[in-house]
Design a protein that fits this description.
Radius of gyration: 14 Å
CATH topology: HIT family, subunit A
Structural class: alpha+beta
Number of strands: 5
Number of helices: 3
Helix content: 25-40%
CATH superfamily: HIT-like
Largest sheet: 5 strands, antiparallel
Strand content: 15-25%
Bound molecules: adenosine monophosphate
Shape: globular
CATH architecture: 2-Layer Sandwich
Strand order of the largest sheet: 1-2-3-5-4
Length: about 120
């Protein structure tokens, strides 16, 4: 058995975090180390998928739900415009292998993909 991810532990209430919103399948929290004025994480409740490529292959409807939840959260907590980032693989900066989307908003560098 692998250890539960930090996000599973948040969902279970073992690590404190404010759940900003949730659906049956997805929940939203603020990133603990924000990289933009608005930095939310949209996370499936299931830890079955390690990254977005596994999720897209295994449950595309859940990926679509994450995008819809990101849109609503960006509108509720920011201006409505947002950047959606899925770090995929440790070489790309992924540290938690329980798929999640970074929702970045606010004063993002123009023309940059860096966020
Ligand atoms: P990634 O590096 O793409 O795997 O993203 C993992 C993200 O989870 C990082 O941006 C972390 O800052 C964030 N993170 C880790 N632990 C927590 C926590 N307890 N509460 C909120 N965000 C967290």
């Amino acid at each position: 058995m692998t250890e539960p991810s930090v996000f599973t532990r948040i969902l279970r209430g073992e690590i404190p975090a404010e759940i900003l919103s949730e659906t049956e399948n997805v929940f939203v929290i603020r990133d603990i180390a924000p990289q933009a004025p608005l930095h939310l994480l949209v996370i499936p409740k299931t830890a079955e998928y390690r990254d977005v490529t596994e999720l897209a292959a295994g449950d595309p409807a859940l990926l679509a739900e994450m995008v819809a939840v990101a849109k609503d959260a960006a509108a509720e907590h920011g201006s409505g415009d947002f950047r959606l980032v899925f770090n995929t693989g440790s070489g790309a900066g992924q540290t938690v292998f329980h798929v999640h989307a970074h929702v970045l908003g606010g004063d993002l560098a123009e023309g940059s993909l860096g966020g």
